Amino acid sequence: MTFETQSGPALSQYFFSQDHELLESLDKRTREHEFSKLAASNTPQHTREMRHTLNIISLLCLCTMKVSDTFPDKLIVGKSGGSVTLRCPPATEPTVTWKHDNTELPQNETTLTFTDFDTDLTGNFTCWKKDEFLDYTYILLDMSHEQSLQITCTAETLNCSYNISCRMNNVNIPNLKVFRLRYEWDDNGWVLPSEDGTFHLTHFTNPYAEEHKRLKVVGEAMSLNYYYTSRYDFYLRDIIKPGCPTLSVAKGVIDLSPPGIWPSPPSYYPLENEIQCEWRSNGERSTCRLDSGAAVPEDVSMLRVRCRDPLLLSQWSEWTPWQNVGRRRQKKNREKGQRVGKKGHHNRKQTQRVGK
User: Fold this and answer.
1) Helix ranges (DSSP H) in 157-255
2) Residue 229 in contact with residue 149, Cβ under 8 Å?
3) Which of 155, 163, 154 lies closest to 191, judged by CA?
4) For residue 82, which phi and psi values (nearest 5 degrees)?
5) Which strand (E) or helix (H) includes residue 104?
6) pTM above 0.90?
7) At what angle do helices 28-39 and 44-62 cross, to 10 degrees?
8) Residues 248-270, buried b or exposed e (16+ Cβ, 10 A)?
9) pLDDT tens-digit profile of 245-288?
């Protein structure tokens, strides 16, 4: 059993040349010089030389990226022990030359079939008409039945338009190079991960409507020889993880605001806050029963907060950074004490004068 996917960059990113040293020797200036020189001549000999040079230039472009850098346009995934069939559709003659990576194969028919498929038959297959490149197909061995991708997703809000953030956790699968993700119903909507490995899927919904259908995403990953896929379905309400709330302290009073993209009104979309305090007296950090509008205790030096949806019992948001509080109050108290001390000293002097 095999299946084919067609999505990704152009063919030039997947082909490997067997004449690598020659290609490396052709720098940009040399290629431009040879191209202009041969193009100026129309003799058969020069025409053949020009075609050969153009082939080399094309092969150099085809070698700019390794196959493991992204998904090939033409990818066939084969099952272990099954059969895989390759075709060379551009061929106009009954015989062609097949190559597996850099090795020429004995078969010369335009259709190439492998039985009892396994790892040794994975890789890049190309077909040629003499020295003319015709087509390519990359084959991988499907390992999804042995090890599946672990997909997790979160969403920060129930708003009409938002991003679903997903990750693939595959610590037990070695040498994975490429990942992509899409909604199951969107065959052409593959999303690649950002630099931190997160996939961002855009979704649209009515935040006031009841959720009836589960969202389904499909993930794929590949190494040099193997292919993995997995599906993950969920209700949006089950993956909510709000963004961080806003914490501010003014005149010793705590003020909390919901994340900027959290829907309103608060009576319909409430948030539960948890505040942690660092105590000045012993340096310990613990949960303190405070909320918006509460006064900061005298012994608290720093605060941080996180939130969640109490109706959905959603995941907690990330903690806000620790925020220093109370230092100004402590300074004011010291200044007040100093003023009281000076006033007492002045009163004692007046009493002494009166006694005299």
Assistant:
1) none
2) yes
3) 163
4) -90, -165
5) strand 103-104
6) no
7) 150
8) ebeebebebebeeebeeeeeebe
9) 999 999 999 999 999 889 888 888 999 999 999 999 999 999 99
